[in-house]
Write a structure and sequence with these properties.
Blueprint lengths: L2 E7 L12 H11 L3 E6 L8 H13 L2 H4 L2 E6 L7 H10 L5 E3 L2 H4 L6 H13 L2 E5 L26 H10 L4 E5 L9 H9 L1 E5 L8 H8 L4 E2 L11 H7 L8 H16 L2
Parallel strand pairs: 1-2, 2-3, 3-4, 4-5, 5-6, 6-7, 7-8
Amino acid sequence: MWIDINAYTGHWPFMQLKYNTCEALLNRMNTYGVDISVISNLNGIFYKNTQSANLELYNEIRSNRRFGDRFIPFAVINPIYAGWQKDMEECKNKLGMKGIRLYPKYHDYDITDPALVELAKRARDMDMVMAFNFRMVDSRQRSWMDIDYVVGTPKKEWTLKNIFPIMKAVPDAKYMILNVANGLDLNKEDNASFKKMNVLMDTSGRTLTDLGSLLRSYGTDKFAFGTHSPILDYLTGQLRIAALRENEAGEAVKSLLRSGNARKMLKL
């Protein structure tokens, strides 16, 4: 069984996307043997009112009975937008969303903003997963209208150090770290804390090229299959698991990476 914890529907203003509807994504899943995908709506990154995007996704999933069993929706929430608490409650209790995707860079708030800390505590109490991205797209290909990823040097794309402060503030919440494209280094104390947290990193990002070593360093319970589709290609995340040697990961560990760790976090 394969569960993709990092996929999207919707549009990206600065590039043409394919397979960015539930119908097209489901066909792709069937082609490559993926059973379930965790999805959110890219439009929520750009709408001022992210709830409009969440309702779009909800209605799209409800439009075909095949979608309900194959897609797990995550809401996009902006904790500095008025009424986000009500939106979060509606997404959980009415729309059946199991998690939240957060975009501090795009929605222009700090990782330690009190509103985000409040959201993290609410997510913990509501048993909702919080998902953060190292980056959405490669900053070298950015449009002049996109957010300012790079100002001279060094590059401003996130590393784990940029995300860890919110995890440290609310260590008993559930986290997904997606498109791990840059460094995972933490100081010794923070690294020890990170290993104790309920967190999954997906296999789509370029930093996971040596997945075997990362499994030894962080543990087999910290990784799960993800594609970052339709922005990245669909197969890389699968190949990184399939290419693991027997001395790096036996079949039991590969099963955890393909679906077991995701099933546990999502309570499937």
